[in-house]
Design a protein that fits this description.
alpha/beta; homodimer
Chain lengths: 249, 249
């Protein structure tokens, strides 16, 4: 008899994630997740005050919280994540790159993260990446310069997008988010021209850092189950073959 | 013919949350969500430095980020949330209460939130709630004093819990979380004695503030669909009656 969705589900329901991790081995290769956050008013210069980050830096505090959401785990940081911050307030745009695999000195609080960005922004830059501290790089350049190099599947986070739980998010996806202002029509036209999918994380309009937490969680769940049955919102079994029709190795 | 899970799903898959909100009206009554965060080393006194919150306050920065996750939306704050912070480092424990319906002056950054807590901690307190600023109250008391008054469904967030997407979380639930240290065995025994369910948000061990983002998102989704078909991980339709078997009013 053909198994139905309901037949498969209960086997997972009463196991904890801790149990699941014993059953499904961690993958050898960790695909890299990329978050791109555009700070429309974010300063490109280091002359902001750590005593008043929101008021003096063009809301670098938002970008600091995005860094926290992207990298910080309870006991360590995510090595399979990279973050690009596009900063636009200044003589010309700059991009800061943070690589999880090389990051050091990252604390979860806003102020120490802002101090790392301050240091990066004090470097003289041109179009080449220049290293500031371990895992943190900076160069001149805007969103278009960055996305011209993106070849993985890209997603743009916007309220009217389709549910991110339903889209089968690519494990090596690039996720583009706006700050509190969002992206301009010009930016959006550019992004859509790349064939980017528009996704939304839920019914409420959230800050970029909260969206990143939700995307990371979805990818964590997908990664856990990619060697086994995927139980999630979405068409579980389009061919109607059920769990026996899946390759389990 | 009896509709199957797969028959129901595609109707939702390609609608955005924005569309869904047009179809499913917002509920008249917003049940209150409660988050309780225990700061084992968090100071009960106001003599910490806003220039070094993590180093001088016993990690009040974690609790500030929890406040952000609990309340902050892109354009406003969640009125249907209340947060209790249990602070334990000092002569005797204190509890700070934040009520979304009354909160004013809450900014998303850590420093201004810490300044609000500093003000609250400067008040003389006894066992009665005392108002510090709009929506922020403080009193003497520990976790047990607080949970003695909790009568809604309570959940304790721990890594080995069952998946929060599968548990049908109560819309007026109370969610108890530990800080970076977690809860002691004594605390856990007390909480379990209350019949609290243990839930987990995902395969990775996350900070409390990230957990709160995930819980809020799950409850947002549940709220959107509670007058219509619920499409989520979990048994969608235990009676096999499909969408036609659901009360839609």
């Amino acid at each position: 008899m053909m198994p139905q969705y309901g037949d498969l589900l209960p086997q997972r329901l009463h196991r904890s994630f801790r149990d699941e991790k014993r059953i499904y081995p961690a993958p050898y290769l960790h695909p890299m997740r990329t978050f791109v956050v555009v700070g429309n008013l974010a300063t490109t210069t280091p002359d902001f005050s750590l005593e008043d980050i929101p008021g003096t830096s063009g809301r670098l505090d938002i970008l600091c919280r995005c860094i926290n959401s992207a990298f910080v785990l309870s006991h360590g940081i995510r090595r399979d994540v990279e973050v690009y911050l596009v900063l636009r307030k200044g003589p010309s745009p700059k991009t800061v790159r943070l690589l999880g695999g090389e990051l050091r000195h990252l604390n979860p609080d806003e102020r120490t993260t802002a101090a790392l960005l301050k240091k990066a922004l004090s470097l003289e830059v041109d179009a080449e990446w220049r290293r500031s501290t371990p895992g943190i790089f900076v160069r001149a350049g805007d969103l278009a310069d960055l996305l011209a190099q993106v070849d993985e599947t890209a997603y743009y986070l916007r309220e009217d997008g389709s549910d991110h739980r339903v889209e089968a998010l690519a494990s090596d996806g690039t996720f583009v988010l706006g700050d509190h202002i969002g992206l301009s029509e010009e930016d959006e036209a550019f992004i859509e021209g790349l064939g980017t999918k528009i996704v939304s994380v839920g019914p409420k309009s959230l800050h970029a850092d909260h969206c990143i937490v939700l995307i990371n969680n979805e990818l964590d769940r997908n990664e856990l189950y990619r060697n086994g049955p995927i139980v999630r919102d979405g068409p579980v079994d389009p061919d109607g073959n059920g769990i026996e029709g899946r390759k389990m190795d």
